[in-house]
Amino acid sequence: MTRESTDYLRRLKTALTGDPATPLAFLCNFEVETQWARHHVGLPAPAAAPMEVVLRMEELGLLLAGPGDVILVKNAPDQGYLRYLGEDLGIGLPAVLVPETTTPDRSTAEDLLSSPQALDRLSALGRRGARLIPMGTSEFEEKLAVSAQVPLAVPDAATFERVNSKIYSRRVTEELGLPPVPGWCCETLGELRHALAQAAGLPGPMVVKDAYGVSGKGLVVLDTAAKADRLVRLLERRAARTGHDRVALVVEHWIPKRADLNYQITIDRRGGVRLDFVKQALTERGVHQGHLMPAELSDDQHALLRRAAEEVGGRLAADGFFGVAGIDAIVADDERVYPVLEINARFNMSTYQGGLTERFLAPGHVALARHYPVRSAAPLVFDDLRRVLGPLLFPASGGRMIVTCFGTVNTGAGNTGTGDGTPHQGRLYTLLTAPDHDRLTALDGAVRAALAGVIQPRENS
């Protein structure tokens, strides 16, 4: 099997650096939205610290980086998992750099800033021409780039924060003349009151979203006037305490839909825009669950998305952004496409699947990217999982399963407190491929069945 970089990665490097051979230091900081949100007033809910599962998802970068790159991670990947990726799948793996000083409540960038040995190794990479490529830039990644003297391959934190607001997404959609979901941008409490009054005249519920909410957080569905009144009263009390009525919210009509979509564009440093793919996003109560590939769309629906990709990409470039952006869209139950629900101008979950689908998704076949719950009586190593999944990990006529992130399986394993074997629950991220939808559904069922019980780790495994 080949161990070279994928065309997908080479195109990304060319867009961001001008050279497909540029070595990159990947930092998959999934918690970055919490940094952008700090300067904006959202819904009255306590800001949760980054969850352990979010921090362990940085392991997904192993699938995107190539053999000449390095991935920066808080926790060293399981050796059995690395052997599976390199030997079983033939993926050319990057080097792995782990900071020598870590704490659970800090991001990996913060850990690196407190780790002189890791910083020295990163600086040596910078002297050899490497660039730092975070999922998205915050002040911590900026500080890391300066301290390690490794230039960023993507824009600065201020640019990322500006273009990742849902308020920015709505305004760009309207200015470009693309079909918008009926809604309003609200930057003061007065604007929110006006928007809710206007929305009360529309049929069905409305949704209020934080400008920087993500994965179902910072979102409230209002399906009665009483709920809307309660929300306004909460915000009024907060405004009285803080002495200002600033907010960063959008109010939108909840559209009955047939499908959620996600499509990705890459914008190069000269402003060129490439549409990378369109996928059907799987969500549950606003929380991302996975992707189905390819999306079920007509030619006209595809054409509208291609137009939106070009125009949104051009606007992002004009506003100083270059790099990867994922755009969420919906197909309503009347088949009308709303091509810009929000712009996520950063790496997205589907970004990390690009190299895998290039390698393993055969022409005409279908794929499902999703995660499964895994219950275990104690921390697992990858070989424990291999024993449970067995032949599902190998190619067969019914398709195959590829493990895309193992580190999240053991999240919470050290927090059961009793040490008495009380099961904990983690997540296993996967990509399933099959010749058709029926066999893909059957494979999904087989994986669910294999993981249904409590997994007992093998002694001395």
From TrEMBL:
Transmembrane segments: none annotated. InterPro entries: ATP-grasp, CPAse_ATP-bd, PreAtp-grasp. The keyword Glycoprotein does not apply. Residues 170-370 form the ATP-grasp domain. Keywords: ATP-binding, Ligase, Nucleotide-binding. The keyword Ligase applies. This is ATP-grasp domain-containing protein. It comes from Microbispora amethystogenes.
